[in-house]
Amino acid sequence: MLSADEYLDDFWPRFERIEDYFWKLERRQHFREPGNPSWEAAVAGDWDRALALIGQTRQSAAEHYRRIADLGFEGRRVRVVELPPSPYVQWSMRALKVRVEAGERTRVVLASEIADRERDRPLPEIVILGRATMYEVLYDDTGTLTGARRVDDHRMIAACRAELADLYAHSEEFMCFFDRQIRPLSPLACLPG
User: Quick check: helix, strand or coil at residue 81?
Assistant: First the structure.
């Protein structure tokens, strides 16, 4: 088990060595993101400022995904969403939109469509760095990052990559979902912290 700081210290050098795909599975419907100015503005009830701050990340997101392309891999994310979307999901989908526009490949699957995969418990938060390293990212009950479990077993990583690739193939394109389910929603009064 790695602490939050140990996880991030372990993650970034391995990120530089990805050979094909960076995979991310996001399942939770609420996270806490202290230190993220847009999240903090949304928690304070300033939706307009939260959106403006997301907009200010466009250049850094573009640079990040250019760097990923230069390193020779692609970022792919599967976002599980419960309907109606939670306030956190409403906010985070706007941040994800900037990432998608910058080059991340994100698709969305409804929780109701994966109920057969969640008979015992919700799918875990997973990050896979190429074929070499996988993390189960851990959060406390409030949605605050607490650490991660690193997995180096190549058979387990291959099985999880195949599962994520299947979810990705059977999920909806991010922008289609965003335009239908997120864009029409009224501004949030306040994002629960």
Answer: strand
Q: For residue 189, tell me if it sits in a domain.
A: no
Q: Which residue type occupies 127?
A: V
What is d(CA 151, CA 2) in angstroms, rounded to the nearest whole number?
A: 11
pTM score: 0.95
**Alpha-carbon span 189 to 16, nearest angstrom:** 39
> What torsion, rounded to 10 degrees, do the Cα atoms 73, 59, 95, 1 define?
50
Q: The CATH number of the domain where 157 resides is what?
A: 3.30.870.10
- What type of residue sits at position 147? G
pLDDT in tens, 136-154: 999 999 999 999 999 999 9
- Please report which helix (H) or strand (E) contains residue 139, including its range: strand 133-139
